[in-house]
Amino acid sequence: MMLFQRLIGSALAVAVVVGSVQTGVQLWQATPIIHAAERYESQKIESPAAPAALSTVPVQAGAHDHAHDHAHAAAPDWQPEDGAERTFWTWIANLLHAFSMALLVLAVMGVCLWRGTPVRSLPLAALVAAAGWLSTHFWPSLGLPAEIPGMDAARLGSRQGWWVLAAVSAALACGAVAGLRSPLRWPAAAAVLALPLIVGAPHIAADPFAGFSAEAQTALRALDAQFVQATTWIAVSFWLSMALACGLAFERWLRPTLAQGFGGNPVVTPTLEPKA
Amino acid sequence: MTPSIRTTAPATGSTEAGIARSLLLQLASAAALGLLVLYGVAFAESPLAHNAAHDVRHVTVKPCH
Lengths: 276, 65
Description:
The complex is a heterodimer. Chain A is mainly alpha-helical. In chain A, about 35% of the residues are buried. Helix content of chain B is about 70%, strand content about 0%. Chain B contains 4 helices and no strands. The termini of chain B are far apart.
C-alpha cells in the first residue's frame, strides 16, 4: 500500500478516536457555556441600519453599527437545529478538525524520521503534539483569547490573518529549534515567536460587550472567563489524546514503511516477521 | 537481521534516493490535505461551513464571526 493511503487511513483512525472524545468533552464542558451566552445574544441591542454597513465601516467606540453575523439578515442560511442535529455537526466538525491535525502531526513525524531521529514513536508524537498545541492554541490565544458568542471583535479577516501569523510563527520557531544545528537557532526562534506579538492582535477600542444591558454584561463576562478556562483544558485534552493516538498509529502503520524507504532506522524493529 | 528487501531487490543509490523523494512528496501531500481540511473547518467564510462548525470554531479558539 502506498504511504499516502496509509497516512489517510491512520489519520482517519486517529480522527474517529480524538474527534469523538473531543465531542464528549465539549458537550460536558463548553456547550452549556455557549448556550448560555446565546440566550443573551438574542437580547443584544442592534442598530437596524447595520447590515448595509457590515464590515466596511470601522467600528467606533461606543457606536454600535457592527452587525452581528449570526443574524445573517438577507437570507436565512441553513444552520443545524439545537439538539441532536447540532451535536451531530459538532461531531463531524470535530472529526474533520482532528483529521486535519492528525495529517499534519503524522507528516511532521515522517519528516523527523527522514532526518534520522532516534526518538521512539510515542515520545516523538508527544513532542510534535506539544508543538501543535503551542502553534495552534497557546500562541494564537495570547493575542486572541477564546470568545463566547455575542462578543464584538475586530473584523473577522484581520483576526484570521493574525491567527495564521501567530500559528505559522510558532511552528517555524519549533521547526528551527528541532531542525537546525546552529546555536543561533535559539535567538532566531525567539525572534520569530516575538513577531506576532510585536505586530499585535487586532482588537476593537470599544467594550466587546457594549451592546448588552448592564446585567447581561456582568453575566457574559463571567461566562467568558469560564469559557477561556474550559477551552484551555479542552485544548490540553485534545493534544494529549492526539499525541497518544498518533504515536500508536505511526508506530503500527507508518514507521516500518518510512524506515525502510529512508534507509532503515536502528530504533525500529520490524514487526512483520517475529523473531523466534 | 537485514530487512529482506535488501537481499531480494538490491537497490542502487539512485532508486533509494527516488524512494525517499517519493515518500517525502507523499508526506507533503498529506500535510497539504491537512491544511486544506483545517481551512474548511476552521476558517472558510461560507455560512454553511460556519454554521455547521460553529461550536468547534469557538471551542478551538478560532476567530468566529
